[in-house]
Amino acid sequence: MKPFSKGLVIAVIQVCLVASLGAKLLYDRSTLPRVWVKAAPYDPNLPIRGRYVSLQVIVELQGIQETKPGPEWRPLQSVVLRVENGRLLGEAKQEGVPYSPSGLHVRYIKVGDERAAVLDKPVAFFIPEHASDPSRRPPGEQLWVEATIPKKGIPRPIRLGVRKGSGTIVPLDLE
């Protein structure tokens, strides 16, 4: 086989790999549950960064109590995400071992004046080069993210939105 033919075969294989990943993500987006979830901006303090916003997804917990440092402290329990009535819920994973390093876990942070449970793994939402940082909101506005919730792994963000007070979520136009 000539070098040109070998290169062409490799290029076709690479295009097929990328296209199959894109097809899988589009299929997941059309079949898996979607939900608007309140998000908190997260700055990972990395020296190398792209044009993305890191967000911590806030979840409502069921069957999990907050652990506090001290003599009775124990590692966080793994959670399973599910969507119910338009809300993202985190439930305790029913396993013999309460902690799984590769799974999803929650931790508590302070958002404004209240404590919120967030996933320990932030999600990245990529933004256009010319767009301003959508995570910096004026007082009274809350940042929300519409996400696809896979059976395993972190939520996959689709678009960002803003809610003023208790109004409706207005998707942001970042183009």
In short:
With 175 residues, the chain is of the alpha+beta class. Helices cover 17% and strands 39% of the residues. It has two domains: 1-31; 33-171, no CATH class.
- What is the end-to-end distance? 45 Å
Structural class: alpha+beta
Q: What is the percent of helical residues?
A: 10-25%
User: What can be said about the biggest beta sheet?
Assistant: 6 strands, antiparallel
Number of helices: 1
Q: Poorly predicted ranges (pLDDT <50, ≥5 residues)?
A: none
Apparent shape: globular
Description:
With 175 residues, this protein is α+β, with helices and mostly antiparallel strands. The protein has one helix and eleven strands. The protein has two domains: 1-31; 33-171, no CATH class. The strands form two sheets. Strands 8-2-1-9-10-11 form a six-stranded antiparallel beta sheet, with no helix packed on it. It has a five-stranded mixed beta sheet with strand order 3-5-4-6-7, with no helix packed on it. A hairpin with a 4-residue loop joins strand 10 and strand 11 (169-171). The longest helix has 29 residues, at 3-31. The model has no long low-confidence stretch (mean pLDDT 83).
